[in-house]
Amino acid sequence: MEIVILVSLLSLYCDFTDAECLVISPARLVVKYGDPASSNCSSDTPVQMGWEATQGGTDLTDKEVKSLNWRVDSVTDWNIKPTCYTEGGQCLKQLNITVYKLPDSVSISYRTYPDPMVEKHHYQLQCLVQNIAPIERLRVTFYKVNTTGEQTELDTQQKSKDNIKTPENGAYTLDFTPSRDDDRAQLWCSAMLDLGPEGPQPPPVMESDRLNITVLYKPLITMSPGCFSMRITEGDTLSLNCSANGNPAPSYGWLLPQSAPAPNTTEERSVVTITNIAKSHSGEYTCIARNPPGNSTCTVNVEVTVDYLPIIAGLAAAAVVILLVVSCFIYSSYYKHTRMGHYQLKDRLPRRHKNKQVVHHNGMDQSFM
Predict the structure, then answer these.
(1) pLDDT of residue 338
(2) DSSP state of 314
(3) Helix H segments across 267-353?
(4) d(CA 356, CA 369)
(5) Spatial distance between the Cα atoms of 319 and 32, rounded to a whole number of angstroms
(6) Beta-strand pair 229-233/294-305
(7) What is the pLDDT of residues 91-103, one digit of tens each?
């Protein structure tokens, strides 16, 4: 038990004296491969000190000093570990140094070329970062920008801290499932070497070239007036306009009631137009848009109704005409019966006076009072 306590006290003493006897400034260096580097080792009291390093190392000083500088014109050792020490190794301080290298290139590609992409299918992208150190401080981000310029961050990845100091190649993959909105979008990746506050600010970033993508997708129909039931009055004009957004451009077909006329189909749309529509044209009108990724349908249930108001108005007008004719006939018949049926000729001769005498004179009748 006493031995354990003694060892613990000795360890605390050594840590305390080590912290007090030597101070390295700066305590941490981030140096680009091939660049110069330097750091200073100092002590509160004069001591003999030296630097042990694969580059820039120095032996113990001949006399006691309070500081000793370590300097290298070009750091070319990835595992360099400069250590300041005093006579007899009583105090040791190691400089925390990170040697880094920016990547030679950053590229994005398909792991399996899709030729071209199809919506809702799964693909794998790869971002390759070549010859970078230390790879554990590398962060790779995948991006997408659509045709409107909207940028989206898809994923960010970082290798595990495997403490590899020398340059490595890093391959980062992304599972990507495109949608129709991704057609003609761009994909790329960026590599950022984040070396902390002692490293270059802002952290250096290298981007890949942009990958232009084409996405095939099945048609999406837009129907005017719409995919639903509609009513139309007999004698009016029916117009159904079927168009679809698809890649590649879709072809069109129709399923119509048997009595309906053939539609007018073009490369961009398909139109059904029926003038003076009849009751027999009622039924389902189904537009079909097709391309290699698939097909879509849109059905309009057309009901042709009869407008009875004009018929009623016509019947009413006919009834009025008939009534007038009958009235005229009745009136005419009544007039003849009352005015002509009781007519007497004697009522039309002149009346003679009771005392009137008729005298024949020279062959002529003459009347005298």
Answers:
(1) 59
(2) H
(3) 308-335
(4) 5
(5) 107
(6) parallel
(7) 899 999 999 999 9
What structural domains and CATH numbers belong to the chain? 22-99 (2.60.40.10), 105-213 (2.60.40.10), 219-305 (2.60.40.10)
Q: Cα 176 vs. chain centroid, distance in angstroms?
A: 15
Mean pLDDT split into 10-residue runs, the chain, 369 residues:
38 44 92 96 92 93 93 95 88 94 96 85 95 95 94 92 87 94 96 94 96 94 84 91 93 87 77 89 92 94 83 71 78 64 49 45 43
Alpha-carbon distance 128 to 205, whole Å?
A: 14
Cβ within 8 Å of residue 343, ≥6 positions away: none
Q: In angstroms, what is the C-alpha Rg of the chain?
A: 55
For residue 146, give every residue at least 6 positions away whose Cβ sits within 8 Å of its Cβ, in sequence order, or none: 152, 181, 182, 185
CA distance 222 to 18: 79
CA–CA distance, 79 with 98 (Å, rounded to integer) = 9
